[in-house]
Amino acid sequence: MTSSTLLRRRPLTALLAAFAVAFFAIPLLALLVRAPWSSLPENLGTAEARDALRLSLVTSCSAAALSVVFGLPLAWCLARVEFPGRSLVRGLVLLPLVLPPVVGGVALLGAFSRQGLVGARLYDLFGFQLTFTTAGAVMAETFVALPFFVITVEAGLRSMDRRTEEIAATLGADPRTVFRRVTLPAIAPSLVAGTVLAWARALGEFGATVTFAGNIVGRTQTLPLAVYLQLESNPEVAVALSLVLMVVSLVVIVALRDRWLVSS
Amino acid sequence: MQGCNGPGSCVKGVATVLLAGLLLWGTTGCSSGDPSAEATGGPAAGSDGEVELTGTITVSAASSLSEAFADLAAEFSRLHPGVEAVTNFGSSARLAAQVRGGAPADLVAFADLASVQVLAEAGLVDTDGEPFATNELVIVTKPGNPLGIDSPAALAGATDAIVSLCAAEAPCGIYSAELLERAGVSIASDRVTRAQNATATLGAVSEGDADAAIVYRTDAMAAGDRVEVIEVTPGDSPTAEYVIAAVSGSANEPAARAFIDFVLSDRGRAVLAEAGFGPPS
Amino acid sequence: MSATEGLAARLVVEVGTLEIRAGFEVQRGEVLALLGPNGAGKTTILRAMAGLQPITEGEITVGGVVLEDAEGEVFVEPDRRRVGLVPQDHVLFPNLSVLDNVGFGLRSRGSSTSEARAVARGWLERVGLAGLADKGQRELSPRDLSGGQSQRVALVRALATEPDLLLLDEPLSALDVSTRAALRRELRAHLEAFRGCTVLVSHDPIDALALADRIAVIEDGSITQEGTVGEVSARPRTPYVADLVGVNLLHGRSAGAVVDLDDSREALALADELDVAAGEPVLAVIRPRSVSLHRQRPDTSARNSWEFTVAALDMLAGHVRARLAGPFDLVAEVTPAAVEDLQLREGSPVWASVKATEVTAFAE
Prior knowledge:
The structure holds 3 protein chains of 3 kinds. By secondary structure, chain A is mostly helical. Chain A is 80% helix and 0% strand. Chain A has one domain: MetI-like fold. By secondary structure, chain B is an alpha/beta fold. In chain B, strand 5 (163-166), helix 6 and strand 6 form a beta-alpha-beta unit. The radius of gyration of chain B is 21 Å and the shape is elongated. Chains in contact: A-B, A-C.
């Protein structure tokens, strides 16, 4: 359908869609309009800003990678295995989607802080502490990012033609070969989409990170945390950092979307 | 929304109006640019003397005031059943930025003078504010003070300890910087975690794994036995001056005024003292 | 358990509320057609033999090797069964080239990529797709294939692994009529060359008649009749079997658009030219329902009209099968009202006619 047909035949659809676009575009536009363009280089050139950007890229990519490593087997189990309590597990996995991230951070503290259910053991046995570490920031980001990956990949696994897997098995392919040569290629688009969503969510994550991993420059202060703190003292820096956040994610998502997310 | 005056297409116009409506609906009050949207308050009788107060007032207060002001707001609403006092807590600097950005507020209660001055410069408050309480900083540690931190110097010297401080520009952050400066010590930046506001600064110790924090005495008291309070040598701690001011152009100035009077009253002082605040200097 | 060299299956499978019971044997080189209505459980039986659906009772052996034994708790995984499954709508791997689709089984069983491709190319040649597979810069993808081509690829993908057991699940039913006839002939040639056991599932008796050596009819989850094609079609035991395979099978020889019948001097006119060389044996199929009866010689356009004598009248539920003797034997199916109308009795003369379009003929 061309855009002119859209306007003629489905004016209401066009109106609501335009409304949705405006709803997103106007606040982002406002950010661009208010951006201190002339002082941008100097605002982004500070060691703190560069630290935050570097840390954000490292932690969000790590969180996306962890989401794939643990999320893919989980999504597969949810999609393929009928086990008791499956819907309960699915609900549990999706919980971070509705949980306010700060509450997620508090929950993580309850589990993995030095007094936490698991964290206390870790600390007693290995002197290992997650809070206030970069690993802790990655963990907090993974906590909120994982559901996006699992939900997307599970949908991909459910919608693929399972008979191709069965045919592959009859042709002598063991489960690993089936997964590698049939399942993975079939779910590649949702795999990429899920990874990008998880990465984007991790990149923007604030509440769980600040609550669980704190806000230490160079160690756990990611871009969103820097933005939040700078908003009071240096709104210009905050806006400049937000622009970086937007540009980085927009570039990645647009690039991947053309390549992967649209099946023609 | 003024940014959306493109070619006068009907779709765009409608979308703009709807969007504006949605955004207003999402906030608790009116924007400062459009006072008519919440002109529900004001005196019911135009005469002098006792007037029946009605409507809603939004009180933006420093997060260290959370508990005391929640009590005060509830009590105020009992005294003036026609008035609903809505509280909004956050760091003073953040709140000042919000009010300057058009967020609805009828009066502000800040933990420093600087934040009020920001609003005064913008013409959003008439006065520099009325001092109504003071607060001091203390060091808090985990219960039992396992690292034996007994002074700012010990805090700076505990090289393994993670120290939770307020965001540098928030009043509590400014005061703690001053405290450390007066003590002649500094803490390495890779052990400092900066929280959004005073309450979160304390939470990093009481709920999280931070080893120590510099916080308001009032907050430390509210945390009970979840933290150990280490007093700082008198004179080392700067005194935080709390000021309260009505926002100019408030839609409900009489009620805002009445709330300020209530805070300054003996009853108000008593509630504040109970929470650990000192009298205004 | 069984002495057979081929497949011996005796199984019970439960799918939802339906319980399917079946027992059959297939010799090496033999083709068994499981014929039955949709929902009778035919596909489930195939899936059970492939190991995709566990059986709840019974045993499946191929070449004396137990693949599954519900009682003895033997279960050979699908990838170790050496079966080839050809589904109804090809189910090719969309991400692989046509060549790699065919080579998939060999790759999975340990061949190198180049070996697998060489063998796959050979198989594609046999179905006339080799040129296509190599055409152009990029490798041909399943997306580029027509329905018939896809089904040919699915067939050689299964055959390329040289399975012991070939399972064909309605292999022709998703194709249009003309493609179906062509592919049926090709499939027949492949099955003749295939040395393993073949089980063909179909709801179309023509497939069974053209491709199978024996037929087992499945109704409501169990086999109601089993035998050679001739046996079953000559003596259908249930109304369904009668309906389905109780057809007239006439042997003859190709003569252009006509079949010269072997047992008489009569010729059967066809709607189209046969693509079988003249003089080659062909089998013509006429459904009893397509035979119309008349008291006098009909002056309709039907060129296939002969005079018969009624040899027997079999009453079945709702209709009558009239067995006719004449230049050749023919069965007609008519309504009881028509019997009354035509005053049919055993021994009475009657004219029978069949439209040329109602005759299906194929190489024997």
